[in-house]
Amino acid sequence: MAIYVNRVLNMKQIKVIGFDMDHTLVRYHSDTFEELTFNEAIKKLKNDLDYPVDIDHFSFNFKDAIRGLVVDKENGNILKVSLYNKIKNSYHGSKKLNYKEQQKTYLGSSIDLGDPRYLSVDTNFSIAFTIIFSQLVDLKDKKPQLELPSYAELADHALYAVDIAHRDGSLKEEVKANLEKYIIKDEKIVKALERFKKYGKKLWIVTNSGYAYTKALLDYTINPFLKEHQDWTELFEVTVTLAAKPRFFSDKLSFLKVDEKTGMLENYDKKVIPGIYQGGYAPKLQKDMGYLGSEILYLGDHIYGDILKLKKTCDWRTALVIEELDSEVKAYKDTKYISIEIDKLMEKKTALEAELDDLYAKEHELNEQIDKTIVNKKFDEVVAIDKELAKHIKEYESHFNEKWGEVMRAGAEPSVYAHQIEKYACIYMNNIADFYDHSPRMYFRPSKRKLAHEI
Ligand SMILES: [Mg+2]
Q1: Which pLDDT does position 448 carry in this prediction?
Q2: Would strands 296-300 and 317-321 be described as parallel, antiparallel, or unpaired?
Q3: Does the N terminus or the C terminus of the chain have fewer Cβ atoms within 10 A?
Q4: Which residues is 286 bridged to in the sheet?
């Protein structure tokens, strides 16, 4: 698969390639993993926050949500938003809002994503969280007698439940015990890594996962495919576990040394040398290892945790792994013929509108009498085209997520999620294995972006 370029990146100048682990270096079966998150979070809601047993009937359908949606905590709505912060699609709980209902709440204006009532959901657990929140909203509306908290509190609680499931080890224990169920083995990733080494690149891992979990996953996904190394620890010059990203990039947290064999920790305030650590601080790592920020490329899957802070505080180059990309690109290809039809219809509609404008010009500017039957006929044609267009757009969208459409687009504009990717990632790809299809000396150049007047 291709690697997509937002900003020039010359791989010849990159000396270190750093990787996030979960969902970047190690790929998950996202549907089963999100379902596990969903189930664990339901348990937390009941056990920690005393939610009623009614929530046992909540059901998980991976396709009910996509990454990059925005939750309106005040109104119990879930929104798809364009790069100009305009709402393009919205649901109240799991009930779709029609255009009028949407206009009534949001008045057609742009929303302010800085307002704390809005929550951008773009982590990997966004699917489980969004589904739980939408069903909590449904339950609150359907059974007022349960006296569930406000929509905003429902959102906070759902977020808490998902977060705790991640932090208290419930998910990790289950994953470690059933690696084949949750984790994808991908030989091509290992090939890509070993090829980087042949070209003299140093490889780092900076993960928020602990050492035991990191070791379990890398033993499982990397070691079986190694050709020129014995163990993943030989492949990576530095491994930082429990890195507390994004704070790792901005706060002076101290390093601890991890004993590779026992996992035992030791205080460490000396110069960082090759090895395995816990915690720490990116600028110290970079300085001690003797690299310039521009010589390090860091790959992650999470805009906020992996990329945004890093871009703002360190000078490292950035790459984002977006697992939805594969199916999104395939759907674009499959719908090419529909897009052509839509363009043709739009051309026809534009021509009809121009003809109508000419007729009105005659009436308003030349005081000519115009034949109303001709005007009405043209209007009818426009209406017919609109109907036709709606049909095509529906068919087009059916190739993407049924409820939400494309991940990267909101109508004719990029989605707010795609905009973030464009802003913070120098390059992006579906899977780091995609590097194997390109030379480690590749000069990635973006294509020239056209402005409105250049077309
Ligand atoms: Mg990750």
Answers
A1: 87
A2: parallel
A3: C
A4: none
